[in-house]
Amino acid sequence: MNNKELLKASSAILKKAKELGATLSGFASVADLKKAPSFTFAPQMPNAGEGIGTRKNDLGLKPGEAAWPEYAKTVLVIAVEHPEDKPEMDWWFGRVDPPGNRVLASVVRQLCPWITDTFGIGTFHMPYHVEKGGTYLKDASVLAGLGCIGRNNILVTPELGPRVRLRALTLDVEIPSTGPTAFDPCANCADLCRKACPQNSFEETLYLSEDYGQEILPARDGSFSRPACNGQMEIDNTVAREQPVNGFDDPVKVIKYCRNCELACPVGKN
Ligand code: B12
Ligand code: SF4
Ligand code: SF4
After folding, report:
1. Considering the domain boundaries, does residue 221 fall inside one?
2. Residue 93 alpha carbon to ligand 3 centre in Å
3. Separation of alpha carbons 250 and 188, rounded Å
């Protein structure tokens, strides 16, 4: 495909993603992503590959290794809104994953064959879990111009703040990146996200640039404690109770994981 055809395909794909249910989407280069901070930090991170939601590592991938198909040149990142007034988008129902996650998976499942049929571009639906070959979705989103990593260590978008969930697919052609952007709402904020954390997960500096050989660290300044946050997830799991839920024959355990650091962020709340 020549440049003109690639740009035409790019805008048609973003339009189709929206039609299928994506709230935001954008392209990032696989070559750039392989050098992104999470990829260089993860191999050195204590507790990588442990904790809530981790799956069996049967591919033998080390932290920081993604199972990119060799032909993958571009990543398309999709974000779906998880608004505060629809908390159920984020809840687990027993072993059934959250409704918002199912929307994301459905968008990508439909988009992959559409891209191939329409433009002859090869696609690959990236798994969610990094230990199953997935990518670090926040870095991909920043490179694709969806927003920045806030002082809460998650993606903050201008439109919806951090209240989005992410998924990605790869394409076998080089589509120009749609990011990054200069957006940075944290400079003038009183750290509302950090103050809302029930586990004080941002209390101290755990990682220093000189020890890890990189300036960009978890929560920007190396203060995000994954074990502390994971501890809150364990509590959320323990306190969850079975209850009757529409669409389920029997009562089901409804797990509501902590979201304080995203719900406290004023960005995107009008
Ligand atoms: C693992 C994981 C967890 C686990 C960890 C336990 C375990 N199983 O290991 C824990 C419990 C910490 C967790 C918690 C949460 N998670 Co989580 N989690 C992930 C997962 C699967 C991988 C994250 C990872 O390993 N990152 C890599 C490590 C090395 O780094 P890191 O801590 O993220 O720090 C890096 C970034 O901050 C980056 N960075 C910082 N500044 C900058 C600047 C630039 C320019 C760039 C490019 C990068 C960058 O560099 C750092 C490394 O140096 C992702 C999904 C995915 N496939 O990406 C979701 C994901 C990050 N989680 C998500 C969410 C929402 C949460 C929670 C709010 C819980 C919830 N209710 O869902 C909390 C928030 C915690 C927080 N404040 O960070 C969302 C975030 C959405 C968003 N808006 O960004 C994701 C993307 C999943 C999704 N469904 O979309 N999570
Ligand atoms: S609450 Fe403030 S510091 Fe935290 S992510 Fe939002 S804008 Fe940034
Ligand atoms: S999800 Fe909850 S426990 Fe984890 S960092 Fe955010 S506010 Fe803290």
Report:
1. no
2. 20
3. 48
Q: Quick check: is 92 in a domain?
A: yes
Report whether residue 41 contacts ligand 1, using a CB cutoff of 6 Å: yes
Instruction: Please indicate, yes or no, if residue 24 is contained in any of the structural domains.
Output: yes
CA of 195 to the centre of ligand 2 (A): 10
- Residue 60 placed within a domain: yes
Residue 36 carries which DSSP code? S
67-120: per-residue pLDDT in tens?
788 899 999 999 999 999 999 999 999 989 999 999 999 999 999 999 999 999
| Confidence band of 270 (pLDDT split at 50, 70, 90) | confident
* Cβ contact 24:181 at 8 Å: no
Q: Work out whether strand 74-81 and strand 24-29 pair parallel, antiparallel, or are unpaired.
A: antiparallel
pLDDT in tens, 225-264: 999 999 999 999 999 999 999 989 999 999 999 999 999 9
Closest ligand to residue 182's CA: 1
- By residue range, what is the domain housing residue 137? 3-188
* Residue 260 CB neighbours (<10 A): 18
Measured between alpha carbons, how far is 22 from 169 in angstroms, rounded to an integer?
13
Give the number of the atom of ligand 3 that is nearest the alpha carbon of residue 196: 7
| Number of structural domains found in the chain | 1
CB of 200 within 8 A of CB of 228?
A: yes
Element (H, E) at 193: helix 192-195
